[in-house]
Every structure is written in structure tokens, then in C-alpha cells.
């Protein structure tokens, strides 16, 4: 099969974006780990529903401004938050 230069160029761009997304997620989780430790030392709950609702509203607005489906942005945030809360619960149990 012959390669299509336009397709390869676009796929290369996607690969670069995926790399950036993974690096950004890793950095985000480094910071949320610090938040988990801080919550433990201050006796705070692993989850913060009020903050989560604020973040959902904020990301939905950002998604709309960026022409991204706000439902997708909310689903993504809910997935990330559930993972963060799981980490915070593990830190609290240490």
C-alpha cells in the first residue's frame, strides 16, 4: 500500500498532540497528588463536590468557546476526577 503524504502529515500532527496531552496529564496528576497529601494533612475529604461542579461548568464554557462538545469535556473531566479521588483516597489511607 502506498503512503499518502497528506494523511501521514495529519497523523503526525495527531501523534504530536497525543504526546502533549499525555505529558500534560502526567503534570496534572503530579499536582493532584500534592493536593491529596495536603488534604490528608489538613483532614479534608478526598472528594470536593462543590469544586467539581465549578470545574464542570468552567470546562463546559471552555469547550463551547473552543467548538468542542461540552458533553465530551464533562465526560473527560468526570473520568479524570474519579481517578484523582481514587488517588486521594489511597493517600488518605496511608
Describe the structure.
Helix 1 packs across helix 3 and helix 2 runs antiparallel to helix 3. The model has no long low-confidence stretch (mean pLDDT 96). It is built from 3 helices and no strands. It is mainly α and 94 residues long. The termini are far apart. 84% of the residues lie in helices and 0% in strands.
What attributes characterize this protein structure?
mainly alpha; elongated; 3 helices; 94 residues
Termini gap: 54 Å
Helix content: over 70%
What does the main sheet amount to?
A: none
Query: How large is the radius of gyration?
Result: 18 Å
User: What is the helix tally?
Assistant: 3
Number of strands: 0
Low-confidence stretches: none
Give the percentage of residues in beta strands.
under 5%
What are the secondary-structure elements, in order, as H or E?
A: HHH
Which word captures the global form? Answer: elongated
On the 0 to 100 scale, the average pLDDT is: 96
Which structural class best describes the helix and strand composition? Answer: mainly alpha
Offer a quick outline of the entry:
This protein is mainly alpha-helical and 94 residues long.
Give the topology, please.
Blueprint: H1 5-42, H2 49-65, H3 70-93
Amino acid at each position: 500500500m502506498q503512503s499518502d503524504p497528506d494523511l501521514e502529515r495529519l497523523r503526525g500532527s495527531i501523534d504530536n498532540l497525543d504526546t502533549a496531552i499525555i505529558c500534560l496529564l502526567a503534570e496534572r496528576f503530579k499536582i493532584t497528588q500534592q493536593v491529596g497529601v495536603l488534604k490528608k494533612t489538613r483532614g479534608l475529604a478526598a472528594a470536593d463536590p462543590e469544586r467539581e461542579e465549578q470545574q464542570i461548568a468552567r470546562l463546559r464554557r471552555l469547550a463551547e468557546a473552543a467548538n468542542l462538545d461540552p458533553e465530551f469535556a464533562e465526560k473527560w473531566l468526570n473520568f479524570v476526577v474519579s481517578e484523582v479521588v481514587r488517588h486521594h483516597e489511597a493517600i488518605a489511607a496511608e
